[in-house]
Amino acid sequence: MNTESIKSFSMECFSLKGKVAIVTGGNTNLGLAYTAAFAKAGADLWIPHFTDDIDDAKTLVEAEGRKIAFIKGDLTDNNYVRNVVDGCVKEYGKIDILVNNAGMGHFAEFAEYPDEMWKRCVDLNFNAVYYLGHETAKVMMRQRSGKIINIGSALSFTADRKCPPYIASKHGVIGITRTFANELGAYNIQTNAICPGFFASEINKEISDDKVFYEKITSRIAAGRWGDRADLMGTAIFLASGASDYINGWYISVDGGFTTVL
Ligand SMILES: NC(=O)c1ccc[n+]([C@@H]2O[C@H](COP(=O)([O-])OP(=O)(O)OC[C@H]3O[C@@H](n4cnc5c(N)ncnc54)[C@H](O)[C@@H]3O)[C@@H](O)[C@H]2O)c1
Questions:
Q1: In this structure, which residue's CA is closest to atom 7 in ligand 1?
Q2: Residues in contact with 257: Cβ distance below 8 Å, sequence separation at least 6, in sequence order
Q3: Any residues with Cβ below 6 Å from ligand 1, and which?
Q4: 150 alpha carbon to ligand 1 midpoint, in Å?
Q5: Domain 16-200+229-256 listed as CATH 3.40.50.2300
Q6: CA-CA distance, 88 to 138, in Å (whole number)?
Q7: What gap in Å lies between CA 213 and CA 209, rounded to an integer?
Q8: Whose CA is nearest to atom 30 of ligand 1?
Q9: What distances in angstroms separate CA 110 from CA 84, 115, 156, 164, 242, one per listed residue?
Q10: Can you give the residue ranges of every domain in the chain?
Q11: Which residue has the least CA distance to atom 38 on ligand 1?
Q12: What is the pLDDT along the chain (262 residues), one digit of tens a residue?
């Protein structure tokens, strides 16, 4: 049997040297871990941010000797979405990796759930994932290469009370991921999702501060602990790199086993 391809396999396929990555919300919380991971693997960063706290991202990326540039705005505005893509091409000449990380949640009793919050969550967690992915795909199709990583959640497969648009939109992220995989596979573009479990961060401060809920969740995590941001970094590098070129339309749950527990 011909063993040439096996012999020529190199750990270099995990490297992101010379790549350009967009990480939406890559200046905060979990997004910051993807940003730092890509810089450590050799990529330059283009960060669409919504809040002004960009210093950590700048420090972490520059410490790795990589470049980082920022563009501020609201991803539910399609003009800004186009500017994110055009701006990255203008700054770096290409887009190799997109991480659709920005997201939001809102908790309220179902009977009082505000229509406005349903709309805002779906616009950011679902519609913006499609629109930015679609604009970025046009660039990647011309390049005939690219990696799109959508951020789902353990709530892409499970549900709970009080956060209907978060659950619906995160389920939808899996659908967008599979659609993109089908549309773009022939262009050597792979679209996959990372589904984090429970990580203490701004987005779930309300639930992580609730002792009863915290214990209930912890008891269901096979690893026996909530996630640390660094737990996401290897998976992000893998899905952004050539090492995952034949994986398309799938998700990796980084949840300590949470979604496997009865
Ligand atoms: N923290 C967790 O345990 C957890 C678990 C599963 C999935 N996730 C997902 O991971 C992603 C990051 O979450 P996080 O925990 O770091 O929360 P976070 O609130 O810190 O991050 C969300 C990011 O989205 C940005 N954002 C909010 N509204 C925006 C808008 N209108 N336009 C552009 N950007 C906007 C925020 O500024 C922030 O940078 C989200 O998609 C979230 O659903 C988080």
A1: 153
A2: 221, 222, 223
A3: 25, 27-31, 50-51, 74-76, 101-104, 124, 151, 153, 196, 198-199, 201-204
A4: 12
A5: no
A6: 13
A7: 8
A8: 74
A9: 35, 11, 19, 8, 44
A10: 16-200+229-256
A11: 25
A12: 899 999 999 999 999 999 999 999 999 999 999 999 999 999 999 999 999 999 999 999 999 999 999 999 999 999 999 999 999 999 999 999 999 999 999 999 999 999 999 999 999 999 999 999 999 999 999 999 999 999 999 999 999 999 999 999 999 999 999 999 999 999 999 999 999 999 988 777 878 888 998 999 999 999 999 999 999 999 999 999 999 999 999 999 999 999 999 8
**Coil, strand, or helix at residue 251?**
strand
Other beta carbons less than 10 A from residue 38's beta carbon: 31
Q: How many CB atoms lie within 10 A of CB 125?
A: 27
Catalytic status, residue 166: yes
**C-alpha 47 – ligand 1 centre gap (Å):** 13
Give the sign of the dihedral formed by CA 141, CA 142, CA 146, CA 150.
negative
